[in-house]
Specification:
alpha+beta; 41% strand
Length: 234
């Protein structure tokens, strides 16, 4: 079963950040508690840009059905028919129509002026479950790194081969809470790295797999990666 991944920036007016965060965190908790298809909902603050909130959300993609009830009356007989229409639908779409989203919109309707812009989607990815870690629902305090990279033309396949090895090895580290590779566009990717703390991040940088695969990845990158340091909000 595949997953639908959303990575988004939300900019808020700095003095109104706490008000927007409160509503957002309540929304996150409802989604994780009530929506079976919501697997991960992380809320981060960008340490170098205090007014920026980053959202990392993962949803199931599964088959659902809709039931239509049709009543037909023939003289004294009532005929009851049920039609089932099956379709593929991301839990994200269901999330957008859910009760928690309705509450969140109502709470923030008068606060839209406090947001410097709408959510800017960085990555929308239909990720293979083999390369996506959803083993915990996000309530843990953590630090994170978002590394955004641009890939040289015709180097994507080589980049992905090495990157998958780095992802797999990094997830085995005791201080790792998640290590994902997300596609932003045809030649742009993001690594989202989550750690239990600063010491775990520093330990990651000293590992042989980071040094070896990191050097190899550099051969396929078009310029230096953009590094954004994040801290989760619980």
């Amino acid at each position: 079963m595949s997953r639908h991944v959303i990575l988004a920036n939300v900019d808020v007016v700095p003095e109104c950040r706490e008000k927007v965060l409160t509503a957002l965190l309540e929304h996150r908790d409802r989604c994780l508690r009530e929506e079976a298809g919501t697997l991960v909902f992380d809320v981060f603050l960008a340490l170098d840009t205090p007014h920026r909130i980053l959202l990392y959300e993962v949803y199931e993609v599964y088959e659902v059905y809709e039931v239509y009830e049709v009543y037909e009356v023939y003289e004294v007989y009532e005929v009851y028919e049920v039609y089932e229409v099956y379709e593929d639908r991301a839990a994200f779409d269901i999330h957008l129509d859910g009760s928690s989203m309705v509450i969140f919109r109502q709470q923030t309707m008068d606060q839209i002026k406090d947001m410097a812009g709408g959510a800017v989607i960085l990555a929308v990815d239909a990720a293979d479950p083999v390369t996506l870690d959803t083993t915990f629902k996000s309530r843990k305090k953590m630090i994170a790194i978002l590394a955004r990279v641009k890939i040289k033309t015709d180097s994507t396949s080589h980049f992905l081969e090495v990157a998958s090895k780095l992802v797999a090895a990094s997830r085995t580290e005791p201080g790792s809470l998640g290590y994902e590779l997300l596609r932003e566009s045809e030649n742009r990717y993001s690594f989202l790295e989550r750690y239990v703390g600063e010491a775990a991040l520093e330990a990651h940088k000293k590992t042989e797999h980071f040094r070896t695969f990191g050097r190899q990845l550099g051969d396929y990158m078009d310029g230096k990666p953009e590094i954004i340091r994040l801290e989760s909000v619980t």
